[in-house]
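In response to the reviewer comment on reproducibility (Comment 2.3), we provide here a single inverse folding case reported in full, input and output, so that an independent group could reproduce the run without further information from us. The structure tokens appear first.
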């Protein structure tokens, strides 16, 4: 009986040892699986495949809106609201006793205008511009108002933030086609006009010193129309119908020129002295093929020009902080100038439209509902 009892204890001990080994094996297996999953997740996250954070907005797609870099102005009928991104205590609402309002929102100045009057937000009294307002642009401390008077003459009135007119640019023998402000060096007003009363078109680009109230630079391009203007800290780029031209902005001398015939500019960004422009074929209705121009803003240093084929369902293509950003219904993909993928981020559910905001942000839509995302 003693021998039998000892055998039973030995068998019981053996079973416990076997179960202990099994438990350790199971635990080790769980740990190994957990580590593998963590590594895989880490790889996906490091590759930029994490979900893109979206912040739902309180207005609808059809509502007129403008982004200041820190919040949205939204117009609904004769009511205008400000909705701050981070500080709800800054939100505001006011009524405007007029209809057919248009909105211009900028980081430093935001305003509304009608067919003949300008209102700077947070001020009470409008200013009558003495004609029909065709367009309005904002700088950091100035407003440019493109007006056509009763005689059919066109001019740009430059106003300060208190709506006092500080300069007026008139056009007599040329047709103005665009204007704006460069804010990389304070407020610099620029204009672009074309003379078509010659055998070949002559495009003229001008800049104005608003403190001195005088022209500060002029560049004339003969034989082609200039369609787009882009500023960097050191240079100004003029994009013509066939040529991309880089000029020193202090001396108005040409640094270099490249061919862009048959292409139209989609977007541009720069960091330091490195510029990325994105083009597509002129007249294209989609983004299935785009061309990256990676350039220096001071001298021609072996510019990189690379054609990228994109999916047919691409919604938009932007240049942000020297990366080409491609927005698809299910994700955002960033490309380097070499054409290789830098990062990808997924939407948690598909989107159907997108618009670019300032500060490396986009507004995406699911039906009528907008969401803001940071892609910088």
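Designed residues, in position order:
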């Amino acid at each position: 009986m003693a021998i039998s009892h000892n055998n039973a204890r030995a068998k019981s001990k053996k079973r416990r040892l076997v179960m202990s080994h099994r438990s350790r094996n199971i635990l080790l297996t769980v740990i190994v699986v957990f580590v593998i999953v963590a590594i895989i997740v880490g790889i996906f996250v490091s590759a930029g495949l994490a979900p893109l954070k979206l912040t739902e907005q309180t207005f609808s797609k059809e509502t007129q809106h403008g982004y200041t870099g820190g919040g949205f102005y939204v117009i609904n009928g004769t009511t205008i609201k400000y909705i701050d991104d981070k500080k709800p205590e800054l939100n505001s609402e006011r009524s405007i006793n007029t209809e057919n309002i248009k909105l211009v929102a900028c980081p430093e100045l935001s305003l509304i205008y009608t067919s003949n009057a300008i209102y700077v937000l947070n001020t009470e009294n409008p200013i009558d511009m003495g004609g029909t307002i065709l367009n309005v642009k904002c700088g950091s401390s100035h407003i440019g108002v493109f007006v056509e008077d009763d005689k059919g003459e066109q001019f740009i009135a430059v106003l300060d933030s208190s709506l006092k007119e500080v300069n007026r640019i008139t056009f007599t023998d040329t047709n103005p086609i665009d204007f704006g402000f460069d804010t990389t060096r304070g407020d610099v007003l620029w204009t672009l006009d074309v003379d078509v009363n010659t055998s070949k078109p002559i495009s003229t680009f001008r800049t104005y010193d608003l403190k001195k109230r005088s022209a500060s630079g002029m560049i004339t391009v003969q034989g082609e129309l200039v369609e787009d203007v882009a500023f960097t800290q050191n240079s100004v780029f003029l994009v013509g119908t066939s040529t991309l031209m880089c000029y020193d902005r202090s001396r108005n001398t040409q640094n270099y020129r490249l061919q862009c015939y048959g292409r139209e500019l989609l977007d541009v960004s720069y960091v330091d002295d490195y510029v990325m422009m994105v083009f597509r074929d002129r007249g294209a209705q989609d983004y299935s093929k785009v061309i990256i121009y990676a350039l220096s803003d001071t001298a021609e240093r072996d510019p990189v020009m690379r054609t990228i084929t994109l999916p047919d369902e691409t919604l938009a293509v932007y240049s942000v902080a020297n990366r080409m950003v491609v927005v698809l219904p299910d994700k955002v993909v960033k490309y380097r100038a070499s054409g290789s993928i830098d990062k990808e981020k997924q939407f948690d559910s598909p989107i159907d439209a997108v618009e670019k905001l300032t500060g490396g942000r986009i507004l995406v839509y699911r039906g009528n509902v907008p969401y803001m995302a940071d892609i910088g």
